[in-house]
Structures are given as structure tokens and as C-alpha cells.
Design goal:
about 120 residues; mainly alpha; globular
Length: about 120
């Protein structure tokens, strides 16, 4: 499997992991696992025992840790495709703006203000 670029190596667009062939190949297992959450029985299995559900798909230890800690930025760096990763967020549920904030390295409130023009509380 090709090596995945680190945050320090940088992608061409800041705060935006490029979903290229290398990431696609590296992320196959995490994307397959996340896509499985489209089915109700898989969502139930995920909620009942995340670790066991994830293990069925052969994720790398880093991918598994990113999923279990809901490290959205790391999931995408490790090959997760946003359209599949959102299926994980739907189980919790996690607002897409919270995922965007994590990717941008901002608090959710700052993300809403800077990227969407929403007023800050207080």
C-alpha cells in the first residue's frame, strides 16, 4: 500500500486532504466499513460493539483509532472519503459542520463564524 502523506508533508490545498489514487487505495477498508453503515443491521452492530464491527473490515490500527475517537481529519488523511465518513457521523449523530471544523482545525463556533458567517454566541 502506498504511504499516506502526513499533515506535515502537506496536501496541495491547505486543510483539504486530496482524495487521490493513493488515498483511495489506502482507504478502501475504512470506506467499505463506513458504507456498511447504510444498512440498519450494521448500524445496530456498530452501536452495540464498535470495535468488533470495525474489526470485520480489516482497518489499520490507525484507521480504527481514528474512527473510534471520531478524529474526522485523521480518517480523511488515512483514506476516508467524506461521503462514506458521513455515514459514521450519522450514527452518532454529528453535524457536518463539526466535521468541517475538525478538518479546519477550528472550534465549532469559530468554524460557523469564519466559514458560514454565523454570529458567535456571547
Amino acid at each position: 500500500m502506498p504511504p499516506i502523506r502526513s499533515r506535515e508533508d502537506g496536501d496541495r490545498i491547505p486543510q483539504t486532504p486530496l482524495f487521490d489514487r493513493d488515498r483511495n487505495t489506502a482507504g478502501y477498508a475504512i470506506n467499505k466499513m463506513a458504507n456498511g453503515l447504510s444498512q440498519a443491521e450494521n448500524r445496530a452492530a456498530f452501536k452495540a460493539d464498535e470495535s468488533a464491527y470495525i474489526d470485520r473490515f480489516g482497518l489499520t490500527p490507525e484507521q480504527k483509532q481514528a474512527v473510534m475517537s471520531r478524529d474526522w481529519e485523521e480518517m480523511m488523511r488515512l483514506g476516508g472519503n467524506l461521503f462514506y465518513i458521513l455515514k459514521i457521523s450519522a450514527v452518532d449523530p454529528t453535524p457536518i459542520t463539526q466535521i468541517g471544523a475538525a478538518q479546519a482545525g477550528l472550534s465549532h463556533e469559530d468554524f460557523l463564524y469564519q466559514r458560514l458567517g454565523k454570529k458567535k454566541n456571547g
